[in-house]
Design goal:
By secondary structure, the protein is α+β, with helices and mostly antiparallel strands. Strands 1, 2, 4, 7, 9, 12, 13 and 14 form an 8-stranded antiparallel β-sheet that branches. Helix 5 runs antiparallel to helix 6, helix 6 runs antiparallel to helix 7 and helix 12 runs parallel beside helix 14. The N and C termini lie far apart (about 85 Å).
Length: about 625
Amino acid sequence: MARTLLPALLSLALTGVPAVLPNAEAAVAYDGQTRRETALFSVKSTNNAAAQAFTVSGTRLSRVSVYLASGASTGTVTAQIRRVRTDAGSAVASRTLNLATLGGAGAGWVEFPVSADVTAGATYYLFLQATTAESKPIAWYGTRQSVPGSLTSWNYDRAYWGGWHADSSRLAFHVNPTGNERCGETQPCYVPTSALAARTSGLLTNRVATEAVLPSFAVGASYVDGSNVLRLPSGRWRYLPAGASASTVVSADDPGALAQIGESRAWLDSGRVPGTTAARRAATQRALLSMRALLKPNGAFAAGWSPAWEYSWPRDGAFAAVAFAVTGHDEEAYRILDYDARTQRADGTWEARTKLDGSGPPDGRKWQLDGNGWVPWATWQWYQAAPQDGRDERLHALYPMVRKAADYAARSLGPNGLPPASPDYWELDTATTNIGTAAPLLAGLNASADLAARLGMYGDAERWGEAARRLSAGIADAFAPLGYQRTIDGRHGRDSAVAFMAPPFNAAPPGLGAALNSTFTALRLPNGGVSPGNDPDFSWGSYAWTASTSFFALAWSGTGEQEKAGRVLDWVLSKRNGLGELPETVNGAGLPSSVAPLGWTDSLVVLTALALEGSPQPTPPAPSGGR
């Protein structure tokens, strides 16, 4: 296969991979080049193989790498260092890797550890051949452009050439790669196609700037424990230095990276990392660090770190504020609430989302009424967890926001005690009132009434308490008989927002346990998670949403169903990616997809782990009437 492009493999091209540049002409040795825009040669045995002539200036070989793409998921790939290209017996080193161990079908730089003594200046051959029972192609990539100072690339195609053929193309390879020649630095290591279901895999941060770790550069990497510093396959570190807007790669134990690691660990130690098992504590530690990376200095909380997610939703921020507050990170929690106060609209509502600089919405997406419940609820939760010294003064500063939000919510209730139809966390309109709006508003009105009473604002407390009683009665009349389905007309199926009727949002009403169980069963997918709902007019497909799944874990943890909550939480945690990040969705194959991390899921996991540890969040009390 000397002159074909292997079109089936071109679909494996990696997104988000920096453009490659040709190496400068080697003064002494030809030991590598990085251009790899073309699938040059098939290397499937027994009819195909390839080899690259090279020279080195040293006398020892420890590693070689090639840019490989495989449509096959199983089989092996063998690299040999030969003195004579056509003679396997002349090999001075050989290493075989398993495709399944690499992650199956995929593409990228594959490194082969070897050990061989060689003669400086002598010509050797890097020979590559793969074996697989699958019919899918496996190819060594390279370039058809001229590479100054290069040596010959060889294609073995028994059917086409009758054997070996010297080709003018040049294969992509490295001999003894060092520094940024190592995969994972400027070039991707071999990335399984399954990893590309996600847009992002992790986060780097200096607490001002944030940078996503792309899936193509997460393979083989891991975080230095307790930090957002990334340990690369080469052993070096990638991090976002203070004052920088882009990451850099440094040697391990770099002073700047060490200082950032120390600061992150001190921040974690200043609070609480919940979890009854080591796995849960590892997950909540990573979740807290990711939430911190998504929080901007002005209090905006990004949902995730990919363009469509780089906005601040009041809903996501409310959950993050509570998770920060209950784990002892008061400053971060209050910063989010202060941002909410500054971005609240004059009528007491919020935009669906704002730009991270707080300048306003990025588009014309319709505003969502549930924010008028989530923000006061989060403010109440912050107040319960805040250090008592000075908290009343700080609450006074937030109280105008609470008053405007609660007043709007109270005025929005109709004769049936329910709010109007509004987009909720689905961000879709409904024709009639949905539970995803009504339940948060009930939590918010109860929270607002209690806060008002604590500050001696009894008129406000009575007004909002009465509104909460009307709303509670409306929910009991319209939603409870339907098992808390999505809408009061009963036309839009089940909704994971049934969990919003449970603690720590609302005191569980009679019959909620059965509704939780039946809804979870109705929404559960073959991959083990749940979809947000089963509206016959809208399909979520085969994707489970980790936030919706976590709703049930949190609800059950607050209603005495700890074992059930633990099982659901552990399913969510089992879907963390290789960096330990929680994704927004899990696809039908059970793989992380969309963005990772998702701040909302991080918050829910922290809250659930804390509840299962025996420290559930309190629930705003329903007003009893009168002063």
